[in-house]
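Subject: for your reference before the review

Hello V.,

The reviewers asked for a structural picture of the protein, and I figured it would be easier to keep everything in one thread rather than splitting it across files. Below is the amino acid sequence we used in the manuscript, unchanged from the supplementary table.
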Amino acid sequence: MPVATADLYDQLGEGIQSLSLQLRSFGRRTAFDGPIRTVRCFEDNAIVKSVLASPGAGAVLVVDGAGSLETALMGDLIAASAVANGWAGVVINGAIRDSVAIDALDLGVKALGTNPRKSAKLGTGEHDVTLVISGVVFRPGARLYSDEDGILVER
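And here is what came back from the structure prediction:
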């Protein structure tokens, strides 16, 4: 990432959105950016798995799991698939599992927390839709920037 989020915000001000939701960082990439792809699901990660198994081309998957920490929406196998398919990062409004294994992967991951409990695999949810998380609009194709200070999203 060429510019730190703090510097980018100083340049663009209110021309860029800043996510105030406090997420934990996982994975070896502490800074990542890319065009947004999206998934909306609730305690069911089948669509997350499917999307991350497709070519990422440097994109960032934003998953709105409605803030649930009851089940994990991504584990190490799905995260390894994301790496193999060229994804830059994953931002999850929910939980992950296998955090130690994910920390060893060349992937940027932000999530609310962890839970070892598996999610359902029914395929409920939708992808490539506009999401609103903590007042920030995540549109497919808009650019997301993430580093140790937080997440910025193009308006």
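For the response letter, the relevant points are probably these. Helices lie at 5-12, 46-52, 76-84, 99-103. The chain has four helices and twelve strands.

Happy to draft the paragraph if you're swamped.

O.
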